[in-house]
User: Fold UDP-N-acetylmuramoylalanine--D-glutamate ligase from Niabella ginsenosidivorans.
Amino acid sequence: MEKHLVILGGGESGVGAAILARQKGYGVFLSDGGSLKEVYRNELEQEGISWEEGGHTEEKILVADEIVKSPGIPEKNELMQKIRAKGIPVISEIELAYRFAGSSKIVAITGSNGKTTTTALIHHILKTGGLDAALAGNIGMSFAKQVALDPKPVYVVEVSSFQLDDIDQFRPYISVLTNITEDHLDRYGYNFDNYIASKFRIIRNQQATDYFIYNADDEVTKRSLDKFNIQSIQLPISMENENSAAFIKDGDMYVRTGEDFINMSIYDFTLKGKHNQYNTMAACVTAATMDIRKEKIREAVQTFQNLEHRMEHVATIRGVEFINDSKATNVNSTWYALESMTKPTVLILGGVDKGNDYSLMQEMVAEKVKAIICLGVDNKKIHEAFGNTVSIIIDTTSAEEAVGAAFAHAEKGDVVLLSPACASFDLFKNYEDRGRQFKRAVIEL
Assistant:
């Protein structure tokens, strides 16, 4: 009797899970409440996988032996409640991929901020050091699709709290937790402790031969360590404590794992800003733990290219620099972006607010920002938060309008920074669409 697997959600992770499950002999049915992208329809057709879109046929779903749920579907969803009531096991795509990853080593990265950059940097260092490593998860190909179509001895996987919520056996050889700040609280009953517990699930199945890299200067992480049963070898990174696996002192980073010692100047990092020094430390400790030679680690850190939509330099026009940080979808990300600014800044802010507390940015905005350009449908909260701090706040409803207004209020030597602190769904398809429209508007100035 073949096992009947139902996949909810037909995005990158859902279609990846379907392809892997079909390959491994499961009976597979994929159901998406919205519409599938053409590329995913074609992949499902090629693999002979049955699917539906535009709604869920319950009688086909509630007969499943197991369900793989898209990370985007919340537990309070009515269909999910029926699935839970029937007691059908629900797993995430990373759990399915893990089942078939064999003896490959998994490096998994999570955190509220910095996880995409850290994941990409780890992958770059491992490749530079000669390892045949895949980049998967929320960045690159889905983990399941990678395992199905192009298996590798090492997987570097970015994982979200939503994916970790539905793991069972998933066990990384190295897990990295960049930091924990309030994000996605709408999905966790507005209870921060639930979100923290979700992030710490990354270490849940780790054993004494595995490694856990975390930021020891992050207050939330630090005070949560004792609440979880951590079996793995702990490798903290810090700018305050020299007894860490990596630390920074007087402009130099030192990485110490086992007997070996690497040091290099932070001025050689291609990634700028204090938050990126933490990301770089985490990546270097990971690489040292994977036995990458130190000269290769040094070379990789100096040759890494930053990601699109993450503090991406777009152009300098009449002395005004434009930076695309569209991936900053929460207050903390925007705080970090502002922290790394060294010139007067015109900030483009706004979008769909996930319960943002703008007071966290108050001091940083007062210190760095000369004007705020709102890019969103409802900007009331931004006006209330910064009306007394910034004298110029302008509402716009398109990327072109926002860029035009920002350019009008910027002088030679200023920066225009798109770092919205919000999701993008009110005016754009996603943060990539927002970033691309911003870049197009800048180039057309």
Q: What stands out?
A: DSSP finds 17 helices and 20 strands in the chain. The mean pLDDT is 92.
